[in-house]
Every structure is written in C-alpha cells, then in structure tokens.
Design goal:
The chain is of the alpha+beta class. The protein contains 13 helices and 4 strands.
C-alpha cells in the first residue's frame, strides 16, 4: 500500500468514525493490518494521528481493541526500522571516515502521533526527571529574583525541590501536590514573608519544605483563624460560674437543696445546651434551673416548687 492509499484510508476512517460506521472502520483497519507500512510512510502520513483520535472518541470495544493492536504492531515495526537506519548510517560513516567512532543520530520524529506512539509504554519513573526539572522552574518563577540574584535563586529553587522530593519520593502525587502548594503560597502577594525569608536565608529550604498550609499563611490570616476558632469554642461552652437569678422557692430533685438559680434565654438567641429540651412553638423563652449545691440542671417542667 503506497502513501496515497494510506492517506485515503485514513480519511475514510475519520469519515466512518463521524458516522459511527464501526463495521466499515473494522474493514479498513484489517486492510491496514495486512499491508506492509514502512517507518517513512508512518512519518509522512497522518494515519497514526487518525487512529489515536478514533481510540479516544470511539465507543465500540472491538474497534478500540483492533486500533490498539495495530498501533502496537506499528510501534514495534517503527522501532526496528529506525534502529536499522541508525546502524546503517553509522557503518557507512565509519567507512568514509576510516573507522571513526562517530554515529549518525536516528531520524527525528516530527509527527505528534509518532511521538505518542513511541512514548505509549514509557514508565512514570523515566518521566520523573523531567517533572522535577519543571518543578524547579516553577519554584524559581515564584521566587521572582532580581537579575543579580538569579544564580542564588536557581540554587535555592533546586534545594527546595530536593527537600520536597526527599519527603515524598515514594509518592509522586503527594510530591506534585506539595510543590503546587509551595508555588501558590510563594506567589501570593499576601505571603511576602515567605519569599523574603527564602531569599534572605532566614528561612531554610528544609524548613520551608516541611511547612504546612497553615504555617505558610500570613500573620493576618493566622490571627483571623485563631479568632474564628476561639469564638467558636466560646460560643459552644457553658459558663464556668453558675448564672441566673437566685431563688429558694425551688427544691433540687437530686440533693434536695433550696439554693438554686433560674435562667431564662430567648429561643434561637443563644446556643442551647443539649440537656435543654426544645420548647413548643408558642413559647418565646426557655427557662431552666441550676442547683448551686450539686450542679443539677433541669427544665422547668421538672420543677418541685414550694
């Protein structure tokens, strides 16, 4: 099958994929599978791109299985062909230069589809060095160093990345999440103390790598969080001292004492303790009694009045 026929076949596959004619797609895939397609034809045509688009958009399992099988076959064939070209080019170069050890580089892959094809089974560990390099670049951009401090900032970004990698080297997801958190906090204009501390040396890369989101927050935000926390705790705690109007007209049903205090609160105005029963909808206030002797508390329906 020549290049024109391959291009025509790829166009037909795209057309049938848009029309959801999966039977016709399987027929064309079978023709491609039976044909001998060279690495040069894979580079000069868009058939690989077309098959990857079909693989992403097609909902038919048999078509996706056939496409995957065909792409795997082409990948193995492309690798063999390119290795053969490399060895041939190296041998001819050595013959011309009198046994020189210099080798010709393999032909570059100019098509995005072929790049995806050759990188299909690349492990995550082999991609991790490029991820780490990108993280260093993000940290350096977040530091926004002045021209005289470029070298120092580059070394600082590398040190921070190494500390984060040492903390989360066993989990790439946590590593990326930590880097994103550090970059976002350094970029935040309200967290200028982080950037200033890192560039001045008062904040070490190791300490910065171990800081949580709460620790990286600005002083105003930390103070606001503490106020919200203390306010929430105070609103949900009962007063330590016994409050209310003292009375000796009510007897405590636990200890029998007469030293009690009556407290009345508006419904919905204050946080009500769990032992206070909900009053009826016609009641505007809720009244309860606290014994000063034993601390027993009860709702007004359980009063023992004298």
């Amino acid at each position: 099958m020549d290049a024109k026929e391959i291009v025509h076949c790829a166009q037909q596959i795209e057309k049938f994929a848009a029309d959801r004619s999966y039977g016709n797609i399987l027929t064309l895939l079978g023709d491609l599978d039976k044909s001998e397609i060279t690495a040069e034809q894979l580079e000069t045509t868009d058939v690989v791109k077309v098959l990857y688009r079909v693989l992403r958009t097609c909902s038919d399992d048999s078509v996706k299985k056939t496409v995957k099988s065909l792409l795997s076959k082409w990948k193995r064939q492309y690798s063999r062909d390119t290795r053969g070209v490399k060895c041939t080019a190296s041998s001819s170069h050595e013959d011309e230069d009198g046994g020189s050890s210099k080798q010709e580089a393999s032909p570059p892959m100019e098509k995005d589809g072929l790049q995806t094809l050759t990188a299909e089974n690349t492990s995550a560990s082999s991609d991790f060095p490029s991820v780490r390099t990108k993280c260093v670049q993000l940290l350096l951009a977040a530091l926004r160093p002045q021209p005289p401090d470029q070298d120092m900032a580059a070394q600082l970004a590398g040190d921070i990345e190494r500390q984060i990698h040492d903390l989360h080297k066993s989990n790439q997801v946590k590593y990326k999440t930590c880097v994103r958190s550090k970059v976002a906090n350094v970029r935040n204009p309200k967290n200028g103390h982080l950037r200033q501390g890192l560039l001045s040396g008062s904040l070490s890369p190791e300490a910065f790598a171990r800081m949580s989101a709460e620790e990286m927050a600005s002083a105003d935000l930390r103070q606001l969080r503490e106020e919200y926390s203390s306010r929430g705790v105070s609103e949900r705690q009962l007063p330590q001292g016994i409050e209310g109007t003292q009375t000796q007209k009510i007897r405590c049903k636990r200890c029998g004492g007469l030293d009690c205090r009556v407290t009345q609160v508006c419904r919905g105005a204050l946080f009500l303790p769990a032992w206070v029963r909900s009053g009826g909808p016609d009641e505007d206030a809720m009244t309860f009694v606290t014994c000063s002797g034993c601390g027993q508390q009860w709702y007004h329906s359980g009063w023992v009045c004298l």
